[in-house]
Specification:
- The structure is a homodimer.
- Chain A is of the alpha/beta class and about 425 residues long.
- The first copy, chain A, contains 14 helices and 13 strands.
- Chain A folds into 2 domains: about 160 residues, Aspartate Aminotransferase, domain 1; about 240 residues, Type I PLP-dependent aspartate aminotransferase-like (Major domain) (Aspartate Aminotransferase, domain 2, 3-Layer(aba) Sandwich), CATH 3.40.640.10.
- Helices cover about 40% and strands about 15% of the residues of chain A.
- In chain A, the strands form 3 sheets. An 8-stranded mixed β-sheet of chain A has the order 2-9-8-7-6-3-4-5, sandwiched between helices. A 3-stranded antiparallel β-sheet of chain A has the order 10-11-13, covered by helices on one side. Chain A has a two-stranded parallel sheet with strand order 1-12.
- In chain A, β10 and β11 form a beta hairpin.
- In chain A, α5 runs parallel beside α6, α8 packs across α9 and α13 crosses α14.
- The longest helix of chain A has 30 residues.
- The interface between A and B is large, with 56 and 56 residues.
Chain lengths: ~425, ~425
């Protein structure tokens, strides 16, 4: 029954029942974690054989004859650049392979913009106050980077097809202080939304007022499908090329959630001018990336086909977890008027919008009963969710029985917090 | 015979003979490289077994129980921090382990200072023009970083015991725009000089005018001894502690020249306040370093004792090369009055000061005859050696026969360039 339709007495009774159930959970002393987008131990096992691929008998030369043990090849191995090119939908010449973290490359890219800048414009740090667009809910670590560099963040609402492009276009074309936007275009963090073709084309055809505007296209989940009907993301780089807008895109990907988060390989791609600036930056920053780990990945996967096979194995582990989330949310919360959520075809997260004003309360209730969730507000700039409603669920790490237990508690807390809130609201309105 | 004592006729005859010998070399179409501080292929073989140490049967947990395949441990594995602590002479709690490049960590440290700063002072980029001291000859990639960030570089002469500390103390205590100094304190690049105890103590007791002054202590060659009488470097961090100056030191090291330049592990250490600022920086930049490569190193070396054994094996390969350099320079150039050079007890380089005004000519002559040397001037800020005299020899990479051939040509070019120069000078002076 929809909580909104309940009489005060019904709602009081419901709260009492929920509280009793919550107390029962509390007494169980659970220790579960649904807060972090980490592969499970079972997933990590999928890549263990990779460690055997590179050993003391292996060929240490890249395809272009460079000894991968020594210095050199700052852009990465040709075969690794080709693999990321296939993942990102660009030519290998547009790819720079980095270390183990695409976040690190994004941070360094923003840092480069702050101290050196693009297109002959002043470095961002010398332009006075500047701004970034932050489609929200979004990825907290993106927002943290812009906040760390003192860049003002403007929240842009997420729609089912991606960021609200009317707002993006209006802001970007009128304000030269807006220097960029954070995007997770496929299976977005946390909603699992994939940008529609029209959204991608509108991004590619943006006419920013700022000459040094950049679209950070964090394609973290580009091969992370979970169903037989995976989302299809339009090739952003090609659309930018058609639009004559190759100064806009800066693409990122990594194998963190393909092989090992702690020992993967990251890469970025961009148009020629952007790449030249960042390549110069890198030429001062390092003599070159870890090439043996690249070789190890190449020997394990051979090419993009090997990656796709690996992702099927991940899917076999992850799909049941995401199906469980969908089923349990539907069963416990469907039709109650206390929450809305996403049912993504891929990625690492499920996004739940609980009854407004209840997200912090839900996270606190769960924590007190032994289940860690991502902090409420984390999915918005300055960690401030104006509706206090969005919660990110990360179902990949726990084993299925633990996941079910955590979700049972979560749904209970969503209902309990909503009942509390609604009762309070009725009292406030003198009902 | 000393060229200075030769008559004009003797010098003309000498030049003619040298030119004939040079032409003979030129006709050989050599292709040799003495320009880069790279380990040889033979040295790289010393670490091949490390690749077998971490395989699909290995224990993936750090000593504190963290799965090294997943996210986490931003400061690095406890056992890896301990190993670098032993190398750098600090407590493990002062160590942060990074990726595969200490240069990258230094760059990021300077970048952090530029955008965020220390001790409540403005970020360096917002303080107006600032300066860095550059003991020279020094490491070109250090100087490139400060130049890239627009920091004015002030050359400080190197003495046999380290930088000229009278000058360092006078500048640092009087000019608050001077924010730091680049140091390679043991087996310096390129001279192979180790700072004397007194020099280290004077550094530790500096009283900089700038509250945010940093001493970049790049201890790249801390375990890279080549003789039975290795240099001993005083513990800089301890001296800073005694002097109540723990805001000064920022120490760096890596295994690039212990295992693999392309796949080693780097680390840094600093006093608590400096470390806290940089650790915060890192917390936005990355979720953590490559922990499996750390584990691989730990399994291979066990502890600092394993490192020391490995360095003996490197020494067995490198010492004959350095002995060859010393012998050939002595034989060919000794007593001629055309060059001075260092005979280091460790490190990766030999520094040669050729007859003033001849360094570029020597490098060009060698290049034309097929031997690559480090560019003349590279060892000074802005690539400008005011005396055009210093040349860095990197004898580690070529095999011994190639090294001998390259050195033979080098010595010949040193003499030829000197003879040319002296003849020109005598003409100028109307002799």
């Amino acid at each position: 029954m929809n909580y909104q339709s309940m009489t005060k007495e019904e709602l009081l009774a419901e709260r009492e029942a929920l509280q009793a159930e919550y107390d029962r959970f509390h007494a169980m002393n659970l220790q579960l974690n649904m807060s972090r987008g980490q592969p499970s131990a079972q997933q990590l096992e999928l890549s263990m054989k990779m460690l055997d691929e590179l050993n003391s008998s292996s060929n240490m030369l890249s395809s272009n004859g460079v000894d991968c043990r020594n210095y050199g090849l700052p852009d990465g191995l040709p075969e690794m650049r080709a693999m990321f090119a296939a993942m990102l939908g660009v030519d290998a010449s547009n790819v720079i392979v980095g270390g183990n973290s695409s976040l690190n490359m994004m941070f360094d890219f923003i840092s480069c913009a702050m101290t050196h800048g693009f297109k002959g414009e002043l470095p961002w740090a010398k332009q006075g106050p500047i701004k970034f667009l932050c489609p929200s809910p979004g990825y907290d670590r993106h927002f943290s980077i812009t906040e760390y560099f003192g860049i003002e963040m403007i929240t842009v609402p997420m729609k089912s097809y991606g960021p609200d492009m009317d707002i993006v276009e209006a802001l970007v074309s009128s304000d030269e202080r807006i220097k960029g936007i954070w995007c997770v275009p496929k299976y977005s963090n946390p909603q699992g939304i994939t940008y529609s073709d029209r959204t991608v084309r509108r991004f590619a055809n943006l006419k920013p007022r700022a000459k040094d505007f950049k679209i950070i296209w964090d394609n973290a989940y580009c091969v992370h499908d979970l169903t037989d009907t995976p989302d299809q993301l339009l090739n952003f780089y090609e659309e930018c090329e058609k639009a004559g807008n190759l100064d806009l895109p800066v693409l990122f990907a990594s194998t963190s959630k393909i092989t090992f988060p702690g020992a993967g390989v990251a890469a970025m791609a961009a148009g020629p001018e952007t790449l030249a600036v960042f390549r110069e930056h890198l030429s001062f920053q390092t003599i070159g990336p870890d090439k043996l780990n690249q070789l190890r990945h190449i020997y394990f996967f051979k090419d993009i086909g090997g990656i796709r096979e690996q992702m099927k194995r991940h899917r076999a582990i992850l799909a049941p977890k995401f199906q469980t989330v969908s089923r349990m949310l539907r069963e416990a919360l469907g039709g109650r008027g206390v929450a809305e959520w996403t049912e993504p075809n891929g990625g690492y997260f499920v996004s739940v919008d609980v009854y407004p004003g209840c997200a912090k309360r839900v996270v606190a209730l769960c924590r007190e009963a032994g289940v860690q969730l991502t902090a409420a507000g984390a999915t918005f700039p300055y960690k401030n969710d104006p509706k206090d409603s969005n919660i990110r669920l990360a179902p990949t790490s726990p084993a299925l029985p633990e996941l079910e237990q955590a979700l049972e508690l979560f749904c209970l807390c969503v209902k309990l917090a909503a009942a509390e809130k609604m009762l309070g609201e009725r009292e406030d309105s003198g009902e």
